[in-house]
Amino acid sequence: MKDKIIKKATDMFLKLGFKSVTMDDIACEMCISKKTIYKYFSNKEMLIEEGTEVVHQKIHALMDEVMAQNHNAIEENFKMREMFKEMFKSFDHSPAYQLKKHYPEIYEKMMANEIEDCSNVFRQNIVKGIAQGLYRPETDIEAAVKFYYTLIFSINENTLLEKDAYEMEFKALEYHTRAIATTQGIAELEKHLNNPLYNNHL
């Protein structure tokens, strides 16, 4: 039952907003008593915190799937972008923006984990790209990782609408790639920028 409550509540939080969804709303949607929810979660904040952890794990499982497909480094980043588009396509408002605004302590805790995990993914991508001749060998890997995650996280936490965040992330990806790409890498980037599958911002 606990897992079912987390799943339903998280779906509602993401679609309708962390602030606006109440424990009563969740109980009504699930046709259970509010007392049943409080049996597992002492308050709404605890439910949000466990829900965001489930989303965090799901995101990184999907990222691992993309990485396992063995695309070249630049295509891998575009595939990641498509994965996020599919996952968040039904949400009007940016989950990160909402969480930071209404539940900053939960947001900060989540971001500490996200930064570490995303940094590892970005770092692996850059190392792969250098080995493939797509990124310049003299690239300062740690600086490039920090610049990129700072850009991506800043966009998500400061952009209200998910579609606007998605469009800005597209520009950030191009900016990041051009900053470290070789001539071969730029050619690969242009190929993906001109591919309708990837350059449809919305």
Plain-language structure description:
The chain is mostly helical. The chain has one domain (49-199): Tetracycline Repressor, domain 2 (Orthogonal Bundle), CATH 1.10.357.10. Helices cover 79% and strands 0% of the residues.
Keyphrases for this structure?
mainly alpha; Tetracycline Repressor, domain 2; 202 residues; single chain; 11 helices
Q: Which CATH architecture would you pick?
A: Orthogonal Bundle
What structural class should be given to the helix and strand makeup? mainly alpha
SSE series: HHHHHHHHHHH
Counted up, domains total: 1
Task: Let me know the CATH homologous superfamily.
Answer: Tetracycline Repressor, domain 2
> What is the average per-residue confidence, as pLDDT, rounded to a whole number?
90
Q: Low-confidence segments, ≥5 residues, pLDDT <50?
A: none
Radius of gyration: 19 Å
What's the number of helices? 11
Q: Within the CATH hierarchy, at the fold level, what is the topology?
A: Tetracycline Repressor, domain 2
Between the first and last Cα atoms, what is the distance in angstroms?
36 Å
Query: How much beta, percentage-wise?
Result: under 5%
Portion in helices = over 70%
Largest sheet: none
Summarize the structure.
The chain is an all-alpha fold and 202 residues long. The protein has helices spanning 2-16, 23-30, 34-40, 44-68, 73-88, 95-102, 104-131, 141-158, 162-180, 183-193, 196-199.
